[in-house]
Amino acid sequence: MSITLKDVEHVANLARLELSDAEKEQFTGQLNAILKYAEKLNELDTDNVEPTSHVLNVTNVMREDVVKPSLPIEKVLQNAPDEEDGQIKVPAVLE
Question: Which fold has domain 5-43?
């Protein structure tokens, strides 16, 4: 598998990035180098290796939830940039 200039242009378009021709060439080379390096993993014998999602055992280290009283709405709204009808008002993000 290799990355083409067209692939880089496509991803840049999706990310809304404007790349110069030099940058496109640079990223194409860098991405191909990464893929070439990752292909070395195919050389490993993994037939007797058990699949895992993590190298180490993962345990939940979070504290137990404790019910506590909430802040009064008046105190919360003091930090809000704008407020309307007891709610924090923010600018619209949809066109």
Answer: Histone, subunit A (1.10.20)
Q: Give the mean pLDDT of the chain.
A: 90
Helix axes 21-38, 5-14, angle to 10 degrees: 110
Compute the distance between CA of residue 71 and CA of residue 78 in angstroms, rounded to an integer: 11
Task: Using the structure block, give the residue that is written with the tokens 């990035």.
Answer: 17
Smallest CA-to-CA distance from 31 within 48, 10, 59, 49 is with 10
Domains of the chain by residue range: 5-43
What percentage of the chain has pLDDT greater than the value 70?
A: 99
Residue 42 above 90 pLDDT?
no
Look-up of token digits 């292909």:
39
Question: Nearest-5° angle of CA 55, CA 48, CA 44?
Answer: 75
Report the chain's terminal Cα–Cα distance, integer Å.
39
Q: What is the pTM of this model?
A: 0.50
